[in-house]
Amino acid sequence: MELFDVYPLFDVEPVAAQGCTITDKNGVEYLDLYGGHAVISVGHSHPYYVQMLSEQLKKMGFYSNSVQNPLQKELALKLGSLSGYGDYSLFLCNSGAEANENALKLASFHTERARIVSFEKSFHGRTSAAVAVTDNPAIISPLNDTVDRIILPLNDLDALENELMEGDVAAVIVEGIQGIGGCRVPEPSFLEEAGKLCRRYGTVLILDEIQSGYGRSGKFFAHQYANVKPDLITIAKGMGNGFPVGGVLIRPEFEARKGMLGTTFGGNYLACAASIAVLDIMQSEQLIENAEIVGNYLMTKLAGFEKIKEVRGRGLMIGLEFNEPIAEIRKKLLFEEKIFTGVTGTHTIRLLPPLTVTREQVDRFLSALKKVLG
Ligand SMILES: Cc1ncc(COP(=O)(O)O)c(C=O)c1O
Fold it and tell me: What separation in Å is there between the alpha carbon of 373 and the centre of ligand 1?
């Protein structure tokens, strides 16, 4: 059987990974500034993370979801404390799209409405409701029309209020920083006003922090640069450092009912062990602070490159928009300089390194980029 061929791939086969370094089958080492789509938060194969997962695996194997799983509570407590959302509750699932599906469903239960507002260039996942509120022409299907949604320009408060005034909007969903949209940052004042408008019109505000959360922005959540408290916050990616896990943080006003949400694998023992290890490492190695310091340093240096039209993002979530197509630049960075980067569209490079990345490593990238750009 062949694989269903949907991924554009470079001819590099990784066989080992450690910290911010990936080694291919020929023994060539690469600096990883992409972290598998912002997934690697505490670095590849962190010894504490590997130990926590191995010990858990030996104890219970792959035993799945259980309401009696004490690790779920430990995870919720640690996550509440590190994120500043200790008064919220946590629903665990397996991926980002699933987290958004659950958040949209919760919003519809809570408001008894069905209409959703999302924003241009947003990405919320590839399952049916998540993809319907995503603004990406490559993945539109007739199924999108089964969800009653409208896509507005980001940061346009008048357009938002016009929709909310109708009184039928269940949820507004917005990314803390747009990921696939190229690291566009919503204005803090927009998020703050959106929060107030949602309250006024009885609409649920969902912050999708699946890519921008977990310390990447230099705060636990990117929306914490604004004075806003969303009703629901969705998480995944960096949460498990590669182990598939996702979740929804839920404001106390939302009342749980038995059977309201559910999943077979969500919150399984291994996912919890991975997620707890991530939080422990983030705290003991002060990775949120590192993301802020190294990220700010990198962004400041990049702002001095003439060929870069715009540097966007925060912390270690950085988009570099060029005047020219970037395919060749990325190829040279990978094959000549041995550095992995990400991409959005044809003109934007995305940097999403592990939060452990050092100043020396980003200096190596800066010299390589200078060389490649001539
Ligand atoms: C902001 C955002 N939301 C949701 C998703 C979907 O997550 P997953 O691929 O885990 O379903 C992604 C994935 O890239 C994302 O960047």
Answer: 31
User: Does residue 118 have its Cβ closer than 6 Å to ligand 1?
Assistant: no
From CA 157, how far away is CA 85, in angstroms rounded? 26
352 lines ligand 1 (CB under 6 A): no
* 244 Cα nearest atom in ligand 1: 10
Bridge partners (DSSP) of residue 204 are 171
| 309 three-class SS | strand
Structure confidence by residue, pLDDT tens digits, 329-354 = 999 999 999 999 999 999 999 999 99
Query: Rounded to whole angstroms, how far apart are CA atoms 101 and 176?
Result: 17
Determine whether the shortest distance from the Cβ of 208 to ligand 1 is under 6 A. Answer: yes
- Shortest-distance atom of ligand 1 to CA 179: 16
- The rounded distance, in Å, linking the Cα atoms of 158 and 81 is 36
Query: Is-contact 115 169, C-beta < 8 A?
Result: yes
| pTM > 0.90 | yes
Does the CB atom of residue 209 touch ligand 1 within 6 A? no
> Separation of 342 CA from ligand 1 center, angstroms?
15
Task: Read off the pLDDT band of 138 (50, 70, 90).
Answer: confident
**Alpha-carbon gap, residue 43 to 315, rounded angstroms:** 16
Q: Which structure tokens are listed for 95?
A: 């991926």
Q: Is 350 in the pocket of ligand 1 (CB under 6 A)?
A: no
Determine whether the shortest distance from the Cβ of 124 to ligand 1 is under 6 A: yes
Query: With 90 as the cut, is the pLDDT of residue 299 above it?
Result: yes
CATH number of the domain located at residue range(s) 48-284 in this protein: 3.40.640.10
The domain limits of the chain are 48-284
Q: What letter does residue 331 receive in the DSSP assignment?
A: H
Compare 97 and 68 and report the one with higher pLDDT. 97
Q: How far is it, in rounded angstroms, from Cα 368 to Cα 333?
A: 7
* Ligand 1 atom nearest to CA at 127: 11
Q: Are 198 and 204 in contact (CB under 8 A)?
A: yes
Q: Closest ligand 1 atom, CA of 212?
A: 1
- State in Å: Cα 123 to ligand 1 middle: 7
The runs of H, that is alpha helices, within 112-213 are: 128-132, 157-164, 188-201
pLDDT digits (tens, 9 = 90+) for 230-248: 999 999 999 999 999 999 9
